């Protein structure tokens, strides 16, 4: 029987652990999402801003419950782990929370496809009931994301056995496969090239549950709130495709006639590997340029940018 599930090891992802009875309250005061409202055994998208409201990182946040204390794990690109961890640790002060690099404690796998739930059950696990629920098993947690996607967070001691099980029910793919799914799902990933470039709404973090306007203060909160309440946002994140290019890079500029040759009208945020003719990416672009439908890569005479659908609706 042909397999309708794929999996890959997310070996370029890092994990930061916040453990202790103040872990949730500490992160609630630092991140853009409503961490305090998130129940145990749940996941949530979130962000961490500079005091100017510009994103230093975006995360998938896992709220786990240990044997004796709360634990929250932040999932982010490995290249950002050290700087983000060190910055957050500076603000712990008297909070009862321990901040550590948890990357070596866990292995993370992505599983997708229309039969992904059946694949989870075929290896003796319970699939989560709905998006962002976490099904807990000994030494293993499974969360569900939109679009027939699941993440499996395994203690390192169980990783080899889990890998063998996944290989028996799903087809192994390379890391770029999951990046392409993130692009198709419109999930913003901040990298070194795009740190401090955007407020959360520009990358649609507010549209996937990663921003709360009802919570208290956090770094950059005043600017994020002002962006929300004081009118239409001029830039948003779009899913794009470009033909006849070998590579796209985060931070690469986009141009349109209304802004001329000397001023970019947008930039690439996150890219997927090229498959076939079309190379896909997420890009933050001036909304007026999108409406004009004449956006080019790198220069006014560069390759044309095509705008592709997202699984959520951008507000007017």
Structure in words:
Strands 8-9-10-7-1-11 form a six-stranded mixed β-sheet, sandwiched between helices. It has a six-stranded antiparallel β-sheet with strand order 16-13-14-15-12-17. The chain folds into two domains: 9-173, Probable tRNA modification gtpase trme, domain 1 (Gyrase A, domain 2, 2-Layer Sandwich); 192-308, Beta Barrel (Elongation Factor Tu (Ef-tu), domain 3), CATH 2.40.30. The longest helix has 14 residues, at 156-169. It is built from seven helices and 17 strands. The protein is globular, with a radius of gyration of 20 Å. It has 316 residues and is of the alpha+beta class.
At a glance:
The chain has 316 residues and is an alpha+beta fold. The protein has two domains: 9-173, 2-Layer Sandwich (Gyrase A, domain 2); 192-308, Elongation Factor Tu (Ef-tu), domain 3 (Beta Barrel). It has helices at 23-28, 78-89, 116-122, 156-169, 175-185, 221-229, 287-292; strands at 6-9, 13-19, 42-49, 55-65, 70-77, 98-101, 106-112, 134-137, 140-145, 149-155, 171-172, 235-243, 253-255, 266-271, 278-286, 296-297, 305-308.
């Amino acid at each position: 029987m042909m397999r309708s599930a794929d999996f890959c090891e997310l070996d370029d992802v890092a994990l930061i652990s916040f453990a202790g009875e103040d872990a949730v309250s500490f992160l609630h005061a630092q991140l853009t999402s409503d961490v305090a409202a998130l129940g145990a055994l749940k996941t949530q998208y979130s962000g961490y801003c500079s005091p100017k409201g510009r994103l230093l990182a975006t995360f998938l946040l896992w709220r786990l419950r240990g044997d004796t204390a709360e634990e929250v794990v932040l999932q982010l690109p490995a290249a950002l782990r050290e700087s983000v961890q060190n910055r957050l640790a500076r603000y712990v002060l008297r909070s009862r929370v321990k901040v550590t690099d948890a990357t070596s404690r866990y292995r993370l796998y992505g599983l997708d496809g229309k039969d992904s739930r059946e694949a989870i059950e075929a290896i003796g696990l319970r699939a989560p009931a709905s998006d962002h629920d976490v099904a807990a098993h000994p030494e293993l947690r499974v969360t569900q994301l939109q679009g027939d996607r699941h993440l499996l967070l395994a203690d390192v001691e169980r990783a080899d056995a889990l890998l063998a099980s996944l290989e028996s029910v799903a087809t192994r793919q390379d890391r770029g496969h999951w990046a392409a799914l993130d692009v198709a799902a419109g999930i913003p990933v901040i990298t070194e090239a795009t740190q401090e470039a955007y407020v959360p709404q520009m990358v649609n973090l507010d549209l996937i549950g990663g921003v709360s306007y009802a919570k208290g203060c956090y770094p950059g909160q005043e600017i994020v709130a002002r962006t929300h309440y004081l009118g239409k946002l001029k830039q948003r994140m779009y899913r794009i495709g470009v033909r006849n290019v070998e590579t796209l890079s985060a931070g690469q500029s986009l141009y349109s006639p209304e802004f001329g040759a000397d001023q970019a009208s947008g930039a690439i945020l996150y890219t997927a590997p090229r498959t076939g003719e079309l190379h896909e990416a997420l890009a933050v672009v001036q909304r007026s340029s999108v409406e004009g439908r004449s956006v080019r890569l790198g220069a006014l005479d560069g390759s044309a940018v095509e705008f592709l659908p997202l699984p959520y609706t951008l507000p007017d």
